[in-house]
Amino acid sequence: MGDLELLLPGEADVLVRGLRSFPLREMGSEGWNQQHENLEKLNMQAILDATVSQGEPIQELLVTHGKIPTLVEELIAVEMWKQKVFPVLCRVEDFKPQNTFPIYMVVHHEASIINLLETVFFHKEVCESAEDTVLDLVDYCHRKLTLLVARSGCGGPPEEEGSQDNNPMQELQKQAQLMEFEIALKALSVLRYITDCVDSLSLSTLSRMLSTHNLPCLLVELLEHSPWSRREGGKLQQFKGSRWHTVAPSEQQKLSKLDGQVWIALYNLLLSPEAQARYCLTSFVKGHLLKLRAFLTDTLLDQLPNLAHLQSFLAHLALAETQPSKKDLVLEQIPEIWERLERENRGKWQAIAKHQLRHVFSPSEQDLQLQAQRWAETYRLDVLEAVAPERPHCAYCSAEASKRCSRCQNEWYCHRKCQVKHWEKHEKTCVLAAQGDRAK
């Protein structure tokens, strides 16, 4: 590890060994909260390990102890909670919590897990250690990317600015929508890393990716819509590090990381012998794939020279006869986590929400202060600054910031007037964080 350590090797081993799956009913409970904090620590340490490039023990520990399937199940469980239970909580008229942070932590849990998976799936052995759950993870990524394409036709992700008319639960719903966009972008990277292992994936997984979901055509649509880019006031902006950034004219021809992930995934799925043997090039598929030729410019090929092979493949495809659609008679595995969780909890969504409303999401002031102290210990400022991909930005206007809130030390601002304008939104979180610091 590097000079800055969040976890000692022995601590990391204990935390990884202790990872387990929780029933939906227990999300937000004391034991679940402890695991969420542990996951955040593992997440930050994994990023530190990758940054200093001195071995990556978190990834090795997850593989050694067989915990990747556990993370995949937890990821899909919290995705289901957000779809089935969270909307029920938001519809309860007399539920007006003074602080929504306990609920926010459950909503944020999905982002924490997908971020950790994005960091460690770069390594081929991690994908292999997912075993049968790689099918569930492929389905998860497909759901997220389909949603990303659908939303790109509706103006992209919601803006972060809140409204003074929103109650805390409405504000939390808006934050969850923005978070969903960021999660989908992480899922794109995870999917790309899975395609790097296409030569070792099972036939069932390949069939799921190419026949059931037709991922190459979905990736073409992502390139067409490019939901992580937009024009605002005549200027090109790209979504990076949870914010929209204006791209300088001199940088506009530079391939973005997300576009690069799509191109590499397409390269893997279209040119590997294993995938070519399974992918049926129907007239529909041919029409979609040939759209790629318009994007394969000299500038792009200079940045990703291997795409010249893809360009040759498309030139051959343009002249080739299309294949009729076919169904191979193959005994295939199917993803089972989502279906099993839905079967176990079907008809119980209201009861789960009612239980969590009474016993989990209505903590006392003392409980909140104790939790705030634990959050402050988990999110150490020196570590957060080390894992941040770039300089901090103003919480109000997104400009580069150099001033930090003097009370909680968490939010950044470029100017005093921005802090004043943002205070109403920031006040409750700030007070809670400050109480946690005093409790230490």
What does this entry look like structurally?
- By secondary structure, the chain is mainly alpha-helical.
- The longest helix has 28 residues, at 168-195.
- A 3-stranded antiparallel sheet has the order 1-2-3, with no helix packed on it. A two-stranded antiparallel sheet has the order 4-5.
- It starts with 8 loop residues before the first helix and ends with a helix.
- The protein has 21 helices and 5 strands.
- 33% of the residues are buried.
- It has helices at 9-17, 30-52, 57-64, 68-84, 86-91, 101-120, 124-129, 133-152, 168-195, 203-212, 215-225, 257-271, 273-276, 283-289, 298-303, 307-319, 337-345, 349-359, 365-378, 381-387, 416-439; strands at 229-232, 235-240, 243-246, 403-404, 412-413.
- The mean pLDDT is 85.
Keywords:
440 residues, mainly alpha, three-stranded antiparallel beta sheet, two-stranded antiparallel ribbon, metal-binding, UCP037948_Znf-MYND, zinc, ZMYND10, cytoplasm
Fold topology:
Blueprint: H1 9-17, H2 30-52, H3 57-64, H4 68-84, H5 86-91, H6 101-120, H7 124-129, H8 133-152, H9 168-195, H10 203-212, H11 215-225, E1 229-232, E2 235-240, E3 243-246, H12 257-271, H13 273-276, H14 283-289, H15 298-303, H16 307-319, H17 337-345, H18 349-359, H19 365-378, H20 381-387, E4 403-404, E5 412-413, H21 416-439
Antiparallel strand pairs: 1-2, 2-3, 4-5
